[in-house]
Amino acid sequence: MNKLIPIQSIYCSKEDETKLCSFDTEVLSAPTTPLIHPMSRLWLVNEGEGTLLLNNKEYTLKKGALVSVLPWQITDITFVKSTLQFFVMAYYFDNINEIIKTFYNPDSVHLSVMQSMSKTPIIDLEGEELVQVRQMFLQIKKELHAQSHMDVSGTKELSEAHGLSNLYITNKLIEILVSFLRRSRSLPVQEVPAGKSEIFQFLYTHLNEKITLSMLSGMFYMSESAISSYITKTTGLSFFDLLNEMRIGKTINYLLYTDFTLEELSEILGFVDSAHISKVFLARTGMKANDFRKTYQSIGDMCRIKDRQIFYNIVSYIYRNYTEDLQPKNVSEYFRISPKELNRILLFQVEMNFSDYLNYIRVNRASELLLKTDKSILTIALEVGYHSEKTLSRNFIRFRSMTPGSFRKSTCLQA
């Protein structure tokens, strides 16, 4: 019988909901039990050696290991060879990711931050590189300590000091993440098929879409009942309760660090409307969403992000109309932007260009039809928006590393 896996806090800090990140030091001399992390984390191992199970994949922990735990991943330290001592920094991934793409990327290059950190979640640092990253962790720790002694409810000067302090922490966090990304690019990537534990991360990154058990069934080759049972046995939550828990976590982030209205947030995060988001937020936190914003939103304007609603509308439009003959030109004209701007927005939002995102959606839908129906490959190709079986096969090989026919023969739904 599966044991429930504890879900950690949806806040960076239990003491102060407004904190951009928190810092702690952990010492472990024995294996742990699994944990689900709604909040992203960075670990830096200072001493010891052990084995980490991250989303059911094994990694070696040793001095100099820098670990990236993304939102809703599951960790479990299964073996401790010698006592582990490591820094732990929890932070709002979405906020930092958007700042990197908006303000630290003037040339709008393709930065797949989440994809890169998912594929290579651990890097090993040594020498000067380790010294520099460790120093950045300690600088954030020092700044957080200084911040805890600031009275931001008082004068304008103190409020500005708090804003500058958040800017300092943000810059240091981004320095660490950029170091991580640069180092990970030099490492080989092992492609591993999606497993059960990655269902949570998929849900988290697709909250603005209409997520159904049927969609997940096609993605993870499990029956709808098997997925629903896995979620409940792992978290103690139903499928819809888990979605709401994830949405509330993101809502808190947006309320703290953006100026989106509740109506805008309801569409971005997949709620029915502003009344729905208010009801769920009140039930989960005991506080109205607007009251939460008024009470806790204290970060200065220089740190806030105000995306345009068009970003989310474009992603939703492609997702809902993938069967049509979508082209960059006609989608750009529909939203009155240039094809170049369309690609820039998609790279920002989903870390894929127009062609990759459209084909990704079509291949996922084709996978579901291959497993759940007896329709011919040509019929499926036409149904998901392709003009020929050959085009489906070409894209299927890109995303699944096999032909549609091989996929149908070798893959079955887990009951």
Description:
With 415 residues, the protein is an alpha+beta fold. The protein has three domains: 164 residues, Sandwich (Jelly Rolls); 71 residues, Homeodomain-like (Arc Repressor Mutant, subunit A), CATH 1.10.10; 107 residues, Arc Repressor Mutant, subunit A (Orthogonal Bundle). Helix content is 53%, strand content 14%. Helix 3 packs antiparallel against helix 4. About 2% of the residues have low confidence.
What is the gist of this entry?
The chain has 415 residues and is of the alpha+beta class. The protein has 18 helices and 7 strands. Helix 3 packs antiparallel against helix 4 and helix 13 packs across helix 14.
Which helices and strands, and how do they pair?
Elements: E1 21-28, E2 35-37, E3 40-54, E4 57-62, E5 65-69, E6 73-91, H1 93-103, H2 113-119, E7 122-124, H3 127-147, H4 156-184, H5 199-205, H6 213-220, H7 224-235, H8 239-257, H9 262-268, H10 274-285, H11 289-296, H12 309-320, H13 328-335, H14 339-350, H15 354-372, H16 377-383, H17 389-400, H18 404-410
Antiparallel strand pairs: 1-6, 2-6, 3-4, 3-5, 3-6, 5-7
Helix pairs in contact: 3-4, 6-7, 6-15, 8-10, 9-10, 12-14, 13-14, 15-17, 15-18
